[in-house]
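New here. Your pick:
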Amino acid sequence: MSRDSRVDGLPGRKKLLDEVEEGVLHGSTLLLLGPLGIGKTSILRELSVRLRDHGRPCGFSPDTRCLGDITAALASAYPGTDASSLTQRSLRSSLRLAVERQPGALLLDHVTAAGTAMKGFLRSLRGTGLGVVLAADVENRRDHAAARALHLTHMEITVPPLAGSAMATLLNDRLGRCPPPHPMHGDDRRQLLRLAKGNPGRLAVFMELLSEERFWRDGRVSTAPVQGTALELVLQHYLRANTAR
């Protein structure tokens, strides 16, 4: 399968990626929403590859919590700016001029907060042609309200669950690359896909756990312990991320 039909190993995301890419190329600011593990990071990483293939400068921040994270990401997209000899304020002014000369993209993953200085700088970049994507983990209405309260974006895009066929493809790929200690029966596969609910990250956690014998019983998957442990790991990650808000 070609890269155009897969997004960083994820099938079924081409249409969504095309939509995000179009917005970025038009200099829009987009808010990419979805729960942990739904594939936002994979979409951003594949988008960065596409943009660089087009010759567009692209900065990527894997964990965006403050203005410094944004400045560092933008500086990586415009390496001609001498960051070592400038104050942070002067650096941001120089970066804005670089963006005006050659509009690119800024991809901000795991946005957990936006202070006054961060909002001010992002707003100062509007009208330069820079495309911006902010990805936020949204598990509930409170998260959604917090993301909207940033008041930074032109458009919201929600990353939907993957279709069952795409999830089955992911499962087969994973079984081929990292087979578990026991063959996986058809019933076990269907149960894991049902529990994953179209969330590729959750499916990946399931498969990591199944490399351990303690999650098997008599050659079959012990579904309840796998689900409970996976949800606990996801919850821990979510709570750690939200303590920064």
